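Weekly puzzle thread! Below is a chain. First person to post its structure in token form gets bragging rights.
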Amino acid sequence: MLNFLGKIIIQGDIVVKTGLRIGGYAGGLKIGGVDLNVITTPEGKPYIPGSSLKGKLRSLIERKLAAENPQFWNVKDNKGNIVGHKCQSSEEYQLCPVCKIWGIAVTEELNVPTPTRLIVCDAYLDDKSITPQMKDNLELPYTEIKFETAINRLTGTALHGSLRQIERVPAGAVFKDAEMIYNVFDEEDKNILKNIFIALELLENDYLGGMGSRGYGRVAFQNIRIYWNKRENYETGEIDLIPERVLNQDLGTTPAEIVRNFQQLIEKIA
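Winning reply:
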């Protein structure tokens, strides 16, 4: 049986360094319209789905752990291709930060309670980050249109009929106050928290969304604030996320800084 010790709240800003595209539904085909749209809120503003961010972070941390131990990859598709990792026993689960943090379904072999520690919320665009100067050069109110084409590798010329329009969130846009909530059920959960910041650090040197190999989707995490709410705080209503309660005030506000000073952060939580 798991105990509930508290929740660690992680807030911060996601800064777009190169055009970002997370696909969405266009709502119907339009003549002369954009070929590939970004996902938007009902107000028409782009946002980053929590599922996209959470899945990318898990993929990156799995690759890191698999590089250290190739046996970590243990899930194959019906063609025998390696597709990821999933703990196969309760003993394996107890030693696995990925399945503990990001979650795993209970199976006959894995019959222990396996609640997801990490909750990743949708991140919404800060309107003010789209400056008047940026708007003067954008084709749409919050996004840009990039034309792309396929190239014939033998002739170096564009392939006929391959021209397409890609909608992107422009560089300089900020998704402000993005939030992740981390449930703490035992003391070890505090120690494996470091994997989240390592994953954020890895993502800064990778990409979010689609078409990353073409230069899309570089992001940076800035102005990170970390709060610790004990079980007693919820019982008394003392869960205000105010500056005085930020744990990492003197430990840095980027993933790399927090990773370097993680031991000091854990001491504050303890």
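Puzzle host: Confirmed. Bonus trivia for everyone else. Residues 28 and 34 are 11 Å apart (CA to CA).
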